[in-house]
Protein: TetR/AcrR family transcriptional regulator
Organism: Herbidospora galbida
Amino acid sequence: MTTQRKAPDAARRNEAARRAILTAALDLAGEVGYARLSIEAIATRAGAGKQTIYRWWPSKGAVLFDALLMLSEGQDDQPADLPDTGDLEADLKTVLRATVDELNDPRYSEPMRALAIEILLDPALAADFAERLDEPMRELKRRRLRRAQQAGDLGPGVDLDVAVDLLWGPLKNRWLHREGPLTTEFADTVVETALNGLRPGQSSSSTSR
Amino acid sequence: MTTQRKAPDAARRNEAARRAILTAALDLAGEVGYARLSIEAIATRAGAGKQTIYRWWPSKGAVLFDALLMLSEGQDDQPADLPDTGDLEADLKTVLRATVDELNDPRYSEPMRALAIEILLDPALAADFAERLDEPMRELKRRRLRRAQQAGDLGPGVDLDVAVDLLWGPLKNRWLHREGPLTTEFADTVVETALNGLRPGQSSSSTSR
């Protein structure tokens, strides 16, 4: 936005500084943890001025949030939409297994966990996060489930937000509250149980485990 | 434990001081919020010495945790077991509706939220919480579901821990992350959707909504 009024070289320099700051924030969050992460240390590592950081971001939580957005943008294989092969169960397992891998990767998981906690403490950051990441992601999930509903693979009366909660909530909870190991088996069981329900004998694909 | 070696009067005085400190912690957490809660303010409000508090509890999070345990012990109608009328769906709705009421009560909800966040930051408090509150509660839930499984109301292959996650997780998430209003309607929908599953036409009690 603001770069439009600047000369191309200045815009390039700003973008390079921005990336250096975000990379430094990610690296340091992984090395020292979020609690001991400081704007001063980020500035030193990035070779930038503290004032530059304070001018661009209101808090260290905001720096980390942008750093995580940069990380996910950097993945070229990041899907713009959830997979739709026509097999809902298989597609959901693919997505949840990818989430398991991501949450087991400390470079992503530790800053993300710090951010999740910071969001609970900072309403402004929470609103920004909801608008820029959480709500768009939830809409992608709802969209895939809506297509499944239209195809007759999801009950016509199913509340799509509750469906998102049932499918993605258990993984998020287990990760954030460290309630147990995050495995592909857990992801698969959540998908099967949410689709088939807890009642007995509701689906031929419900196997005894 | 330690009171056994003390004279009865001293034990009674200790118990009175303990209750005054926990009540002061609850009241102050509600009034000023957890972030601005201090051991000093708790001591002043309770008419106790700061050293007494530091001797009995390692952190303000630990004080608040005991205060919340005292609050739930004080409810005489607190069930030792989850209801079992033989109607699993009705029983689960009863339990989740009671949780909705509890989480909408600021006297309970605000300190509990502060504690939930503190637990994410403090592994020792997390371990204490898991042992004294979270795991016993989860066992009560598993026990009710195990009886339902034995009665044939729950699929024989259902993983009871995943079932607990599907039934109780959405409410906890929506509350902790302030994702939406906590209503009895939401609680009912979660119970129905988890029991019936997301697939179409799996149960006669699945109504279009």
The radius of gyration of chain B is 20 Å. Chain B touches chain A through 49 residues (CB under 8 Å). Chain B is about 70% helix and 0% strand.
